[in-house]
Amino acid sequence: MSSSPQPLPPHAIAVVGAACRLPGGIRGLDDLWGVLTVDRDVVATVPDDRFHAADFTDARRRRPGVSYTAAGGFLDDITGFDTSFFTGISPREASRMDPQQRLALELAVEALDDAGIDHRRTAGSDTAVFVGCSSRDYGELQSCAPHTGNAYTITGMAVSNTANRVSHFFDWHGQSIVVDTACSSALTALHQACEHLRSGRSRAALAGGVNILINPQGFAGFSGASMLSPTGRCRAFSADADGFVRSEGGGLVLLKRLDDALADGDRIHGLIVAGGTNNDGRTSGLAVPSAEAQEALLREVYAAAGLSPDDVAYLRRTAPARRWAIPSSARPSAAHWGPAAPPAPCRSGSVKSNIGHLEAASGMPGVFKALLVLRHAGIPATRTPSRSTRTSTSRVTTSGPWSASRNCKAADGRTWASTPSASAAPTPTSSSPRPPNGPQSRFPRPPAGFPSWSPPAPPGRCGPPRSRWRSSWS
Prior knowledge:
single chain, Peroxisomal Thiolase, Chain A, domain 1, 6-stranded mixed sheet, 3-stranded parallel sheet
């Protein structure tokens, strides 16, 4: 890893606000860091307010229309929504809105609060919205009971309105789109937002992804394809990996061009220096990735950013769900880094072992973990649950600041030398079915004198209080 600060390119994008809702009661980046550092497992079983798991699961034998597991990561509450804060949305309309639309609205307010921006002062601006979303659960269930519909059913079911709701509520006039590339949706949305800002079409953009699980047929479908873990755990990079665990939640980040963020005096979580997307093309199967295509994307993005792999200290990688997929997942980064050992090993990790796989929103927890690695200058070990005990066999082995004189013990027992200029980067995301490979983004540590992370600025308006109402999808 290079020890000298890298010059910041003029096209760098600053992350000035962040918000997340994740399983296990995670309602912000500090909560996520707590889960990672104490090695907590937040995967549970389907709560009764979604559907009765016993009616749709059978762990003893596999049969059509039934899941062999009820394991998943779930939010504490997807029915609470404050219509008194979100003026213009009546309780009657809110009851027909896809929970993903409601979640996106709440996350948008919280991201602006985190950035210390009063949303009322952004009305009429060219702020853009890019949201990754692919689930149609709510619309599908509403279609099964057409007699329950009202004047708001059609707009409430439309996935495109996941982004449009945000733009409409805040009176933003920038581009507003939903991106669906399956499991790379959120990172593709993030990449498109960065490109949008670099083109000068907007001064700010909100980007990320959301995912809600309420239809049992999704579990049954993935079970039919033998994609879910029958033991109910994601085992990242483990020989015991036997599938993935479905999870829900979401995350949004507020982005600005670096020059604009500095001019506005924004607190900056991190920088996105470069990104890219591509597609695997023809492989042996629609859901089978291409290591060669992913390696080509890595080389393209690093070349565009003018960076060397030696500049990276942490690599956020997609955790393969199967044992046989581990070599193909590791090959692109291994080939890009080359056969020679770098000055200090680059560590990689995942967050799926803690919270499960958020599908369309899955890229955001990895982005947040990378930002937290930079903030805390430490890398929590990736959780590796044991097949027999379902408890972790790894521990958080890295804490405290990066220091050229400090050697930190990796989860596998190796040591690595850390440096003040260490950087963190998520890798391309391949998803199933075969969408474009998810974006490659790099979050470098700012050079000396650059505004660093500090406690959040006083928000213009705290996030909405949550009053409860109930909508039924059964």
